[in-house]
Design goal:
Keywords: Endoplasmic reticulum, Glycoprotein, Glycosyltransferase, Signal, Transferase. Pfam families: Filamin, Glyco_transf_90. There is one protein chain. It is elongated, with a radius of gyration of 27 Å. The protein has about 290 residues and is α+β, with helices and mostly antiparallel strands. It is built from 6 helices and 13 strands. Helices cover about 25% and strands about 25% of the residues. Strand 4 and strand 5 form a beta hairpin. It has 2 domains: about 110 residues, Immunoglobulins (Immunoglobulin-like), CATH 2.60.40.10; about 120 residues, no CATH class. It binds 2-acetamido-2-deoxy-beta-D-glucopyranose (2 copies). The site of one 2-acetamido-2-deoxy-beta-D-glucopyranose has 3 residues, from loops.
Length: about 290
């Protein structure tokens, strides 16, 4: 055997050893120490009555010692299946997000309203954690016009907190609002076609009526879409409000000066606008997996 041949053999041997070594470490590696039976699976997306455009739930992997698994076990180390009552396939867009810390976020969007839904999570065809999950009854999809008649029931289904500090604070200065005179003043002060963009909404019998003020009111599509989505899910009480479609807060009057209530996507310490989630957030919730 020449020196060259010898070198070639050693090289092959070395490569084979490397391969063996890496496959050995793979098979007993990270995902191998997950105890799939102990997987914790929870979240609002496992309840039929939690109706959002893209539903979601969480998966926390647990290791052999019963502790949280804190690394990625791969991009999608388990399978998720959705099945309806009669076993038929469900039209769904599903995404598993690896947080790379042992927790996974499962998002899914259904494209039809279902009666009963079964969600199962499996590893090598064996159920993990408390899988399968039964979502009993009516599972509404985003465009189902199926409003829950009682607001309080809807709050409960959505696990809404009793209040949000910021909204409470912003609203606190508006105790008695005379809708007619407030609307007159708001329109008179902010109906400047190029400087302001305002939408006046009235929700009556869960139908939405809207009039805009100003030239650049294209962003009404965002306030329209979140209100429309809400009225498909719950019967809203009759409401009237102004939404500022612009990029800066409008009402600079002091509290003593009787400011008018205007809902805005922005605020500041020196303005009285009532701040609500911005259109990019509401739109992301509405369009996720859409
Ligand atoms: C384990 O993970 C869950 C969910 O991610 C978390 O709530 C809990 O605090 C974690 N437990 C420990 C001991 O870190
Ligand atoms: C608002 O301004 C426009 C343009 O200046 C005007 O045509 C309209 O009559 C005003 N509307 C009200 C309610 O003041």
């Amino acid at each position: 055997m020449s020196a060259l041949q010898m070198w070639k053999c050693l090289k092959v041997l070395f490569l084979v050893l490397l391969c063996l070594n890496s496959s050995a470490s793979e098979s007993k590696g990270e995902s191998g120490s997950v105890d799939w039976k102990k997987t914790k699976i929870w979240g609002p997306g496992l309840k039929a009555e939690f109706v959002v455009p893209a539903r979601y739930f969480f998966v926390q992997l647990i290791d052999n010692e019963g502790n949280n698994f804190t690394k990625s076990a791969g991009e999608r180390p388990f399978d998720v299946h959705l099945k309806n009552q009669d076993g038929g396939r469900v039209r769904v867009y599903l995404r598993v997000l690896d947080r790379t810390d042992g927790m996974y976020l499962v998002n899914y969007r259904i494209y039809e309203t279902l009666a009963d839904l079964e969600i199962s999570l499996t590893k090598d065809n064996i159920h993990i954690g408390d899988s399968p999950f039964q979502l009993k009854g009516f599972v509404a999809h985003e465009n189902c016009n199926c409003p829950e008649p009682r607001l309080s029931t809807w709050y409960k289904h959505m696990s809404c907190p009793a209040s949000y500090r910021q909204i409470k604070n912003d609203l606190a200065i508006f105790k008695d609002v005379d809708l007619e005179s407030t609307a007159r003043e708001t329109i008179q002060r902010f109906n400047i076609s190029t400087a302001h963009s305002l939408s006046r909404y009235k929700i009556i019998n869960n139908k939405i009526y809207r009039k805009t003020y100003g030239e650049h009111v294209g962003f009404k599509m965002f306030s329209d879409s979140i209100l429309l989505s809400l009225t498909r899910k719950v019967v809203l009480p009759d409401i009237e409000l102004f939404i500022n479609l612009g990029d800066w807060p409008l009402e600079k009057k002091t509290v003593a000066d009787n400011p008018v209530p205007i809902f805005s996507w922005c605020g500041s310490d020196t303005s009285r606008d009532i701040v609500m989630p911005t259109y990019d957030l509401t739109e992301a919730s509405l369009e996720l997996l859409g």
